Each structure stands twice: as structure tokens, then as C-alpha cells.
Amino acid sequence: MIPPERRRTAVSGGQLAYVDVGDGPPVLLVHGFPTSSYLWRREMWLLAQRMRVVAPDLLGYGESGKPPGADLSEPRQAGYLKELLEQLGIDSLAVVGHDIGGGLAQMLALDDDGPAVEALVLADPACFDAWPIEGVRMLQQATPDQMSPAFVEGVVRLTFDLGLRHHDRLSADDMQAYVAPWLADPAALFRAARGITGEGLAGRDDELRALDIPTLILWGEEDPFLPVELAERLGDAVPGSTTGLLPGCSHFLTEDAPHTVGPLIYEYLRSQYLHDGHAHADAGPVPVFLERPPTARAFEVEAGDGEVP
User: Fold this and answer.
1) In this structure, CATH architecture of domain 7-306
2) Which of 58, 126, 177, 304 could lock 103 by a disulfide, CB 3.0 to 4.6 Å apart?
3) How far is Cα 297 from Cα 242, in angstroms, rounded to an integer?
4) Coil, strand or helix at 106
């Protein structure tokens, strides 16, 4: 699937590239490390059927600018996203985030001065003080002689090798789409890694408990970077949240289970953000509708390998 062409705009840290497709209530898709908005290439088209989808490359990532002196810490990245939303005239929205993008999504939701976040979807998100992970800390200590295109490509490929359960679902072209943005400026990968500080969410548990918005938490049971135990902790911290554990899936859920994750996100936002009623057609596929259970706080996809038939 060919992703739409990115637009560009200037924020205080540099130039952001972003996708802006569809019409309706806006939803912001935020990727993590070391990916780009390409992570959402399938989901953006699905959500754009009913919503306006904005999917930026974070500053220092993808096709966005990679200025050597830019502040890429989480609080500043959240600030750049706020600047983008302001430029686009968006003052309320839903936010979907993966990895550090999930951490940024939480930060936006907790920010009283930014756009109103009306719904959250968090996929294997950075949370609490459980980041940066050990692999990122190692990259933060890299020496200049390691900052070569070959080494950078190896890092990105290894990240997906460890963070995928179903390697056959990521094509060679898709892998190259993740690698290519780093090759022109290999040092940019290490600047992005050093920007991951763990700031922004540590010690904010009480604020999370006061968060009163619909929240869906999706987690791969075999995530080696952010262990699944964090899913239960985050689900307990965010009142009224729904937690989905995907067996047979690792960290990169949209690559491991694309035919499950996209529909789950769509249906959750349809019911909890768009507030569409539950209607049945006479024929055709039956969608999965996620509702907040009165007692149970989590569900598990029962089909093998995280895929709903």
C-alpha cells in the first residue's frame, strides 16, 4: 500500500513532514523509535474513511528535518506536535500512539494547555519510568566511528528482528522504507536515541488516575522491549481503560497483526470517539465492537498469532 505524500511545515525545532488525509473529527497518529509515519500506512487509510488523519514524522525522524542542534526530548517533541495541531486549526482530537509515540500521546492528554484529547489508543507505549530501554541507552553511548550507514541499517534491522514475531509480514520494501530515512544522515539515528530521556511521564501516576477519557491499550504479549506487565499497570492507572493483550505478537503490532490492530483501533474510535451507535446489517462481515466491561478490565484476542479471522 502506497502511503500518501507528506506535507511540510515549520515548527520551532525545524521542519515537520506529515500526512493529512480524510475528513471528519481529527485523529493524530504518532510513531515511535526508530520508525516514522510509515508505521501507520494501512491504518491511516482505514481511519480516513470517517476521520481526518494527521500522521507526522517526529522531528529528527522520517522525512522531517534532522537539525543537529534540535531538542528531541519528549517534552519538546510533544511541543512540536502541539505547534503542528495549532497550525492545522485542530483544538480537539483523538490520539493514537506507539512506543514513544504512545508516551507523547499520554503527555498530550495530560496537558491542560494543549488541544483537548477526547480519546486515546496506546499500542505498546512508553509509560511511567520504564524508558529509555537498554538498547536505546546503548545507542546513546555510540562513538562517532559507529555512525556509519551500515551500522545504522544494522541497528534498524535488528530492532525489527527483535520486535517482530512474524517476520514474513514485513516485506523487503517495507523494511527499506524504515531504513532509508536514516542513511543520508546516520548520526541522526543517534541524536534521536539521545532525545529519548524518559522525561514527561515519570512520577505522574496520580495525573493518569485523574484522566477521564476513553482509552484503549493494546499490547503484544511477546514484547521484548516493554514487557507486558506494563499493560496491566497502565490499565490500572488509567480509569475506565480497556486493555487488549495480543498473543503471538511482539512490539510492532501494526506489522505483526495488521488485520487485527487496524480494525480494533477503528472500531474503538468509532464507538468511543465518534459515538456511533451499534447497528447490524442484514449481511456481510460482523465488526468487533469494543465496549468498557463492567467488571473485567482486559480482554485477550483468542485467535492464534494475534489475528482475528
Assistant:
1) 3-Layer(aba) Sandwich (3.40)
2) 126
3) 6
4) helix
